[in-house]
């Protein structure tokens, strides 16, 4: 189990990790500075949420742990772990098509809505993580 006990941390490779789905009570960490940006994390067993500079970035229901979250110009990548299947919503570019990969296998093309949100289900089981990559489609 790879929970982030400090709720939000910078990794040596320049990414961030956040979330602790084992918590019974909602716990928050605000004003976390990384790469010149301010991050906010709220997490517990029911939800994990990340904001950057007041903007929505990530949410899972129920809660999860996200490792090596890497926001790129053309998408985002991370590893995710939880005790069960989760619904993940990402904040990306509006009205844009993205290719979604789980453990390097493309699972489909998805389009964001007018607010730039993309939602997907990730089937997980306790103790196992899934690598998720979401990249702008060339299509």
Give a short synopsis of this structure:
By secondary structure, this protein is mainly beta. The protein contains no helices and 13 strands.
Largest sheet: 7 strands, antiparallel
Quote the average pLDDT.
95
Low-confidence stretches are none
List the total number of helices: 0
Keywords:
globular; 139 residues; 7-stranded antiparallel sheet; Chondroitinase Ac, Chain A, domain 3; mainly beta; single chain
Describe this structure in words.
- The protein has no helices and 13 strands.
- With 139 residues, it is mostly beta strands.
- It has a single domain (8-136), classed as Chondroitinase Ac, Chain A, domain 3 (Sandwich).
- The mean pLDDT is 95.
Please write out the topology.
Layout (H helix, E strand, L loop, with lengths): L7 E3 L5 E3 L8 E8 L2 E8 L2 E6 L2 E7 L3 E8 L2 E7 L4 E6 L5 E6 L2 E7 L5 E6 L6 E8 L3
Antiparallel strand pairs: 1-2, 2-7, 3-4, 4-5, 5-6, 6-9, 7-8, 8-13, 9-12, 10-11, 10-13
């Amino acid at each position: 189990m790879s929970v982030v006990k400090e709720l939000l941390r910078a990794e040596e490779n320049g990414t961030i990790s956040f979330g602790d789905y084992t918590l019974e009570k909602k716990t928050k960490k605000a004003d976390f500075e990384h790469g010149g940006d301010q991050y906010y994390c709220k997490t517990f067993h029911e939800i994990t949420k990340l904001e950057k500079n007041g903007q929505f970035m990530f949410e899972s229901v129920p809660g999860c742990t996200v490792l090596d979250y890497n926001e790129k110009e053309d998408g985002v990548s991370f590893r995710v772990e939880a005790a069960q299947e989760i619904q993940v919503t990402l904040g990306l570019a509006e009205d844009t098509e993205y290719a979604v990969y789980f453990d390097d296998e493309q699972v489909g093309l998805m389009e964001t809505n007018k607010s730039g949100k993309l939602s997907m289900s990730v089937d997980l089981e306790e103790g196992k993580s899934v690598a998720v990559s979401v990249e702008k489609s060339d299509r």
